[in-house]
Design brief:
single chain, 598 residues, alpha/beta, Rossmann fold, 5-stranded mixed sheet, 22 strands
Length: 598
């Protein structure tokens, strides 16, 4: 294929295609989403790709393909691994036949996640090997090696890129794409059935494989020692690139141990590294995985500095500056660069719901309906609608992970009987993990209102399809699952479906649902504004009758509205979508529809 500038996620997908992957499954989640999007864009013949209902489903689909001897890949972000943990932990015992690579993108920062959890710990917990790429080029090379290792040891293998690797771009030397490996076919055997006796035996075998994999890792080019002085730096992931820049810029004489496979640690290479140095600084995101390994091997004979000693931060993403400061201090070198003038602190710009987002209309209608009740708790979820927590909407009081808003609401209701609880969940998340919570609410007859914000897509991660959209990831038509019918089948008796932009109807629907005794549901259905390819020919404009009360701004927080020079509301017409929500808030009718200026 030649040389090509690739995003890290793109390189991972193309590396898997080169390795002959034939089945790819996953659930969208930043920073992993573009891996599957690359497969869909490239349209490589013979590769089946799917956005699965959730990460657990995706893991099991990939496992089934690997049982039959195909090479499979499953993708997710780090919190998605929690959803997939149940099958994965058993899969490490049962094993696979064809190569299976589990790509879990970690998010140091975190930039777009609930947690900063480190998948390398999960790999250790599951006794599964993990590759930790430092760049898009290395990620591309690691994928093939991961498939080969998986087939050799009959185990799933982790690839753990972080946000900077996933979203960085680099020039990658691409080999030709291989034809997808043909599956040999499923072979029936008792080892596919995880009985306790099998688990006992397989656990012992799994532990024995760790040393063999460690020895193999000591021979891979992703792990290497760059010899220098008696002070050593062990480094994993993208921090390696920052470190090498610092060494070059300041001409440092350091011995570097580059770790591309942090678990199991390449033991022989680590021993050699420790024999060359007197002290060690460990650079890694996020947890002290390599650091703990070196401490174990050195048994106190070497001074190992890192997170445990407080020499490196335990949270957040590393940068060139943070690594430069730590390395120069460790090397005993003062920075010779001139101090830069202190830059002014940039103002914070929190994320907001888009102008014309139907979720804003749903939140405002629910909040209006809730005024009739003494206390309402708004239980949120993970998606664009988490932004409903911000002022002036203030309609997300809890948000934990994917799908728990419905069940958190039940717990609050049980503990505080007189409180009204509304649980907001998106349509994609409804299919992901919302349904079991609804069944529980019906089974326990818990008095909560479930608001399904159906905007016809998985909006937060870029508009991927889901079981309710009527098409698959590969663009094939699919039977759209009906949310109302699913709610009915789950036993919910009070269900309303409304357009949230029809303000009075939406308020009435929420009020009736909250007055109902028992589980109730409101489906607020309107497309994500990002799906609307062309803006309407009309917009809204504030006329001279505006009294400057600014209720439209204070109640809605629409980014298309601001305060003008005279203290009156002004609409930024180029981004106005004519959703008309502000019209329902204005007490004097000062907001009128006009033709859009083209």
């Amino acid at each position: 294929m030649g040389r090509r500038v690739c995003m890290g996620n793109e390189a991972i997908a193309l590396g898997a295609a080169r390795a002959g992957v034939s089945i790819v499954s996953g659930y969208p989640g930043t920073p992993s989403t573009e891996i599957i999007e690359t497969f869909l864009h490239e349209k490589i013949p013979g590769i089946e790709v799917q956005w699965s209902t959730n990460e657990k489903t995706a893991m099991e689909v990939a496992a089934g393909a690997a049982y039959a001897g195909a090479r499979s890949m499953v993708t997710m972000k780090q919190v998605g691994l929690n959803v997939a943990a149940d099958p994965l932990m058993s899969l490490s015992y049962v094993g696979v036949e064809g190569g299976m690579v589990v790509v879990v993108a970690d998010d140091p920062g975190p930039w777009s996640s609930q947690t900063e959890q480190d998948t390398r710990h999960f790999a250790k917990y599951a006794n599964l090997p993990v590759f930790d790429p430092s760049s898009p080029e290395e990620a591309y090379e690691m994928v093939s090696c991961a498939f080969d290792l998986s087939e050799e040891f009959k185990l799933p293998v982790f690839l753990r890129p972080t946000t900077r690797v996933c979203h960085a771009s680099a020039t990658v030397d691409l080999d030709d794409i291989s034809a997808p490996r043909q599956a040999a076919g499923f072979e029936k055997k008792q080892d596919w059935i995880i009985f306790p006796a099998l688990s006992y035996r397989k656990h012992g075998e799994l532990e024995q494989k760790q040393k063999l994999i460690s020895d193999r890792f000591s021979t891979l080019p992703f792990n290497r020692i760059i010899k220098g002085g008696k002070k050593g730096v062990a480094v994993s992931g993208v921090s390696y690139l920052y470190l090498m820049e610092v060494i070059k810029e300041f001409d440092l004489d350091l011995t570097v141990f580059k770790v591309g496979t942090p678990y199991p640690l390449p033991f022989k290479l680590a021993e050699e590294f420790l024999s060359l140095v007197d002290s060690v600084l460990v650079l890694e995101e996020l947890d002290p995985v390599v650091e703990e390994g070196l401490l174990f091997i050195s048994a106190g004979t070497k001074r190992v500095l890192g997170k445990i000693t407080g020499d490196m931060p335990c949270n957040g993403e590393y940068s060139f500056e943070s690594i430069k400061n730590a390395v120069l201090k460790f090397a005993g070198v003062e920075s010779k660069t001139s101090a830069m003038a202190e830059l002014p602190t940039l103002p914070l710009r929190p994320p907001v719901l888009c102008a014309g987002c139907p979720h804003r209309a749903s939140f405002y209608a629910a909040k209006t309906a809730a005024r009739n009740f003494d206390k309402t708790v708004y239980c949120g979820d993970i998606g664009c609608y988490t932004l409903g927590n911000a002022a002036p909407l203030n309609t997300v009081d809890t948000s934990l992970c994917m799908g728990p808003g419905i069940t958190i609401a039940q717990g609050i209701k049980l503990a505080e009987k007189g409180t009204k609880c509304i649980a907001f969940i998106g349509d994609s998340t409804f299919f992901h993990t919302g349904i079991p919570g609804i069944i529980n609410a019906v089974y326990q007859n818990t008095d909560i209102t479930i608001a399904i914000l159906d905007n016809h897509t998985t909006a937060m991660t870029g508009g991927q399809p889901h079981p309710g959209t009527g098409r698959t990831a590969m663009g094939m038509p699919a039977k759209p699952l009906d949310i109302e019918k699913i709610l009915t089948a789950c036993g919910v008796d009070h269900i309303s479906t409304v357009d949230p932009f029809k303000y009075e109807d939406a308020v009435d629907a929420f009020r009736a649902a909250m007055e109902y005794s028992g589980p109730s549901a409101v489906i607020a259905r309107a497309p994500c504004i990002a799906l609307v390819k062309k803006l309407p020919v009309t917009v809204r404009r504030v006329n001279d009758s505006c009294i400057g009360c600014l209720k439209c701004i204070k109640h809605l927080g629409c980014p298309a509205m601001s305060v003008g020079k005279e203290g009156k509301a002004v609409i930024n017409e180029p981004i106005c979508t004519d959703c008309s929500l502000c019209v329902n808030v204005c007490p004097v009718g000062a907001i009128k529809r006009v033709d859009r200026n083209v």
